[in-house]
Design goal:
With 372 residues, the protein is α+β, with helices and mostly antiparallel strands. 30% of the residues lie in helices and 28% in strands. The protein is built from 10 helices and 16 strands. Strands 2-1-4-5-6-7-8-9 form an 8-stranded antiparallel beta sheet, with helices on one face. Strands 10-14-15-3-16 form a 5-stranded parallel beta sheet, sandwiched between helices. Helix 7 (228-241) packs antiparallel against helix 8. The longest helix is centred in the middle third of the chain and has 18 residues, at 169-186. The two termini are 36 Å apart.
């Protein structure tokens, strides 16, 4: 069983309080503007980046904006927010909850990692004058727990593999639970295709698709060359997602070194350069490519110490249906469900009214309705 996030908890995060959301292989958040769809995805992405070892200041560039409205400061003028998740896998559910102080300075003030009803790691801010939290993790040997300071600008769970020796049964449980959670969170690719960027010439690079998909043509050339099966699946998808007949998807390097992609039309009809497609067609093409491909082609760093066979990739896409018509939205979701059934990819996104209507008609998609 591949580790995967199965629940998000926004205990106090922007407009959400004491909110719990299920995360299935294909989960779409729907609701009116202001209902907090993007906020849920922002919390998911933040946890993923923290699990990768990113410092707080690079994850929350405006931390005060995540503090719930009307949240009162304590006697020391402190305010903050709390988020968490559950990752299921070989061990069963492993839970992580994090409390982050936004004012007067950004720092982790509390963290709890639990499994099977046991606290494996807890941290707490004991001395506000120090840039550390007091941590305690299960040992299970001569001493019940090990206590040591951890930095207050990192997720403590992400540091456990470097701090825990694994010489006792308790330490092995801590490492196993931390690994399951980190593998589930680190396998996240946040994607928001930008048509205006995809129309620019794509310069040669490392062949890994970036978040905005501005190097789409370069990656299309790579996938066409390296994986005929995925390329054929993408072409089939484009026949439903693009106007007119599509026979193939070609890509080549031009004399100036940039890469150009185009839709091959039936004989006698001119091919269509990708940069001349409509916004919806470009977004459909990019999202279909993301769903069909894998971490080796996407700009995401999975856990290198864990075999790829036991990892899955989660695509997180805000405004998933932006610019897409009903046919494109339905086709993209059917494609996602088909790929998800193979077990290597999951999809979590936010959609508008049209996307939500389409999602309810596709078996295998979970729609979570949010109220403003």
């Amino acid at each position: 069983m591949r580790p995967a996030v199965t629940e998000l908890r926004l205990s106090a995060f922007r407009s959400h309080r004491r909110a719990t959301f299920p995360i299935t292989p294909v989960t779409l958040f729907a609701g009116a503007s202001g209902s907090g769809k993007s906020t849920v995805l922002r919390a998911y992405e933040a946890l993923a980046r923290l699990a990768s070892g990113a410092p707080l200041e690079s994850v929350f560039d405006d931390p005060v904006s995540y503090v719930p409205e009307r949240a009162a400061a304590d006697a020391q003028g402190r305010r903050g927010f709390r988020i968490g998740c559950t990752a299921d896998g070989p061990l069963g559910p492993v839970h992580l909850d994090v409390a982050i102080q936004a004012e007067p300075e950004l720092r982790v003030v509390g963290e709890r990692l639990t499994w099977d009803g046991r606290e494996l790691l807890t941290t707490a801010l004991r001395d506000p004058g120090r840039s550390s939290v007091q941590a305690a993790w299960l040992t299970g040997g001569a001493a019940a727990v090990t206590r040591a300071p951890l930095p207050d600008d990192r997720l403590g769970t992400a540091l456990l593999p470097l701090r825990v020796a694994g010489s006792t049964e308790g330490q092995l449980q801590v490492l196993a639970a931390a690994e399951q959670l980190l593998v589930a969170l680190r396998s996240v690719f946040a994607c928001d295709p930008q048509p205006v960027r995809m129309r620019r010439p794509a310069a040669p690079g490392d062949g890994r698709l970036r978040r905005g998909c501005d190097n789409l043509a370069e990656v299309l050339l790579r996938t066409r060359t390296e994986c005929a099966t995925r390329h054929a699946a993408l072409v089939r998808a484009l026949r439903d997602g693009c106007s007119g007949e599509v026979e193939d998807l070609a890509a080549h390097t031009r004399d100036d070194g940039t890469v150009r992609a185009l839709l091959a039309r039936p004989e006698g009809r001119p091919d269509t350069p990708v940069e001349r497609l409509g916004d919806g067609e470009l977004r459909f093409l990019a999202l279909a490519l993301v769903v069909l491909t894998g971490p080796g082609v996407l700009e995401v760093e999975q856990a290198s110490e864990v075999p790829a066979a036991i990892q899955s990739l989660t695509v997180v896409a805000d405004n998933l249906d932006r610019g897409l018509d009903r046919r494109q939205s339905s086709g993209l979701l059917r494609l996602a469900v088909m790929v998800v059934e193979r077990g290597h990819v999951r999809l979590t996104g936010a959609v508008g009214e049209t996307g939500a209507q389409c999602a309810r008609e596709v078996e295998g998609v979970t729609v979570v309705d949010l109220e403003p």
